[in-house]
Amino acid sequence: MDPVELSDSRLLLRLPTQADVDEITLACQDPELQRWIPVPVPYAREHAAQWVGETPSSWAEDQELRWVITERRTDGTMSGPLGAIGLHARDATMREVGFWVAPWARGRGLMTDAGRVACRWGFEELGLGRIEWWANVGNNASRRVAEKLGFQFEGTCRARLLHRGSRVDGWVAGLLPGELT
Ligand SMILES: CC(C)(COP(=O)(O)OP(=O)(O)OC[C@H]1O[C@@H](n2cnc3c(N)ncnc32)[C@H](O)[C@@H]1OP(=O)(O)O)[C@@H](O)C(=O)NCCC(=O)NCCS
């Protein structure tokens, strides 16, 4: 698939570039991010560079459709990357959403707005029949974002997720067409 940018009045979701690597590297030092997302630890600049470098083929192969989240400043210019969101292919009409926001940009509704933009596009343009959310049990901030988007909590699956070599219990929620809030 050819990459697309998504936007609303506040945000621009665009492809990551090598110019974003330092900010992504800094964000991924956050212990809370490392606690909930199985990024490599320690997280080095080369990991961010690799993630950015893989993005064009991930789109071309229709695997993870990923964006960095940028925000319009009051002077009209766009911020650097404040987070990332991806829609991972699971089957022909279902994708799993994954996301993070840099610690310095949290608590301002950024992820909820970005999730709304990406999920709406997934339903309207990709024709998805379901978007799934998974998180390690206890990730209440992520669960709150999912709930605010209209995801229905569906349960806890034992040892469902692989987190840096350990199997951990997973929470799952699902969003169907018409349920996005
Ligand atoms: C989860 C995450 C993406 C949220 O980003 P954000 O931009 O702060 O999200 P929003 O501001 O849109 O919404 C956050 C909501 O979670 C709530 N919240 C934050 N921390 C919380 C916690 N520890 N327990 C419960 N709710 C929490 C906020 O109050 C807010 O809800 P509200 O609007 O009802 O007050 C961010 O915390 C993050 O990157 N965490 C680390 C990585 C991660 O966990 N990714 C998801 C993996 S499944």
Q: What does this entry look like structurally?
A:
By secondary structure, this protein is an alpha+beta fold. The protein has a domain of 125 residues: Gcn5-related N-acetyltransferase (GNAT) (Aminopeptidase). 30% of the residues lie in helices and 33% in strands. The protein contains 5 helices and 8 strands. The protein has an 8-stranded mixed sheet. α1 packs across α3 and α4 crosses α5. The longest helix has 16 residues. The chain is globular and about 40 Å long. The site of coenzyme A has 21 residues, from α2, β5, α4 and α5.
Largest sheet, strands/sense/barrel: 8 strands, mixed
Q: Gyration radius, to the nearest Å?
A: 16 Å
Number of strands: 8
Average per-residue pLDDT, rounded, comes to 98
Q: In DSSP terms, counting alpha (H) and pi (I) runs of 4 or more, how many helices?
A: 5
Q: For the record, give the distance between the C-alpha atoms at the N and C termini, rounded to a whole number.
A: 27 Å
CATH topology of the domain at 6-130: Aminopeptidase
N-to-C order of helices and strands: EEHHHEEEHEHEE
Helicity, as a percent range: 25-40%
CATH architecture of the domain at 6-130: 3-Layer(aba) Sandwich
Are any ligands bound, and if so which?
coenzyme A
Low-confidence stretches: none
* Corresponding CATH superfamily of the domain at 6-130: Gcn5-related N-acetyltransferase (GNAT)
CATH class of the domain at 6-130, please? Alpha Beta
Q: What's the structural blueprint in terms of helices and strands?
A:
Blueprint: E1 6-7, E2 11-14, H1 21-27, H2 31-36, H3 45-60, E3 64-71, E4 83-91, E5 94-101, H4 110-124, E6 130-136, H5 140-149, E7 152-163, E8 166-175
Parallel strand pairs: 5-6
Antiparallel strand pairs: 1-2, 2-3, 3-4, 4-5, 6-8, 7-8
Helix pairs in contact: 1-3, 4-5
